[in-house]
Design goal:
Blueprint lengths: L14 H17 L6 H8 L3 H8 L2 H27 L3 H19 L5 H8 L8 H22 L4 H21 L5 H13 L1
Helix pairs in contact: 1-2, 1-4, 4-5, 4-7, 5-7, 5-9, 6-7, 7-8, 8-9
């Protein structure tokens, strides 16, 4: 799936940078981006603040790397589920929900990291903003491509409905509003595509 989002600047990962990124990712996801400072990240990673700044240059760049890494891992995870679903577009749509449920159980008890990050980074000028919106546009394009194979005349509308079901389920899961929100959204998606 293509995107019109500008590509963020990325850094080359050294072993120290990987430790910083691992610590930052855990802390950002658990506590929130604004609640975590570079002092805590460097302490958790076992590096000096100088090393952190030498590798990343700024906290903003750490946020970029965190979200870009999470997005790359999500897309690879989803690709495995889509491949396992086979070529049938309805089954591939449902596989998106299955992948989201499996991801949430393994990596996302607090909901979608992109949605969580967007709640803190609303400024379109922030270098991580294109990663957040880019992932969501990519997901909408995925749903649109799949629904175009099912009912081309209603693909845009159906894809948007699927996107709303998917994103709403991720938020409901993260908030713990009710049990197994993603599975319920999957059943609604199945009914929509019937």
């Amino acid at each position: 799936m293509g995107t019109t989002e500008p590509k963020p600047r990325r850094i080359t990962m050294t072993p120290a940078a990987r430790r910083v990124l691992a610590a930052a990712a855990r802390l950002f996801y658990e506590r929130g981006i604004h609640a975590v400072g570079v002092d805590l990240i460097s302490a958790e990673a076992g590096v000096t603040k100088k090393t952190l700044y030498d590798r990343f240059g700024s906290k903003e760049q750490i946020v970029v790397e965190y979200l870009a890494d999470r997005d790359e891992r999500w897309r690879a995870f989803l690709a495995e589920h889509l491949d396992a679903a086979g070529p049938a577009p309805r089954e591939r749509v449902l596989a998106v929900f299955d992948a989201s449920r499996a991801w949430a159980e393994e990596f996302g008890p607090r909901g979608c990291s992109m949605v969580n990050a967007h709640a803190e980074i609303g400024d379109p000028a922030h270098p991580a903003h294109p990663i957040i919106t880019g992932q969501k546009r990519w997901m909408l394009a995925l749903f649109t491509g799949l629904t175009a194979q099912i009912a081309p005349e209603t693909a845009d509308s159906t894809a948007r409905t699927l996107m709303l079901l998917h994103e709403g389920a991720l938020v409901a899961h993260g908030l713990g509003v009710f049990p197994d929100a993603i599975a319920q959204a999957r059943e609604q998606a199945r009914a929509l595509l019937a």
